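It would be a great kindness if you could assist me with a short task in structural biology. I am sending you one protein, given as its amino acid sequence and as whole-number tokens for its backbone shapes. I would ask you to consider whether the tokens describe a fold that such a sequence might reasonably adopt. The full record is reproduced below for your convenience.
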Amino acid sequence: MSSRSSSRRSSARLGRGIALHLFLTPLALIWLFPLWMMVIFSTMPDRGIFSPSIELLPHGNFLDNVNNLQRDTNFIGAIGISVSVAVTYTFLSVLLTSMAGWALARYQFFGKGVVVAIILGTITLPYAVVLIPQFIMVARDFKLANTWVALIVPPLFNSLGVLFMRQSFSMMPGDLFDAARVEGVKEWRIFLFVALPLARPMLAALAIILFLASWNNYLWPLLINSKPGAMTAPVALGTLIGLTKVSWGGIMAGAVMLTVPMLVVFVLLQRHFVAGIAAGAIK
């Protein structure tokens, strides 16, 4: 009798799995189709992209489009700048948001509730509201336009990252940190060598989110940096859109060069990303 019931349960699970895959597979194909068409367009000449026929297989002009892109924008150099900015921004932002989250989670001080409320309030503000004041302060008051400091420092504070790390540190057992204090361990060592290793999955998830945000950032680098030789990759791609000519083949080739490596990185690190998000959401 028990073998029959277990067989029914396994058959029911198999049926639910098949139904779920039948439902999700078309959605996945719908999501992947624009990416595939981007790859197709990157292998076609400009005039072929607007051909009335629908092309679903790659052509042979990808290297030509890449060469034209490199000639017009020095795209390889722009990618190097984007990588440097994104890596530096991710490291500093993860460190800053972790310290802020640790303070909000583990210390009691006057006005703590007000600070948390202000951080929550900043999430509701559209980026366009703070963009112009931030530009005026950085470019006019601090004279930091066309510098790496202007590219990296202003977006460092991330409200969602602070709240995410606050939640992560709040879930950890306080007795562990109290025991370290009893042993005479200083606060900064508790944070660096006890709290951060325990929060490794959450830190990995936050780092992936922040890196992708910096990698795809277009508007702020466009405003604060006007030097052609110091453009990030998204801004360099935008320069291909002119008043009388648009290099669609180059744009698609550049979009592929920016997108595919990030997709590969995400696929390789998705286990850490999912684990970090799940660990930060369960209390």
Notes: The chain has two domains: 3-61, 73-240. Residues 73-240 form a domain with the MetI-like fold fold (CATH 1.10.3720.10). The mean pLDDT is 86. The radius of gyration is 24 Å.
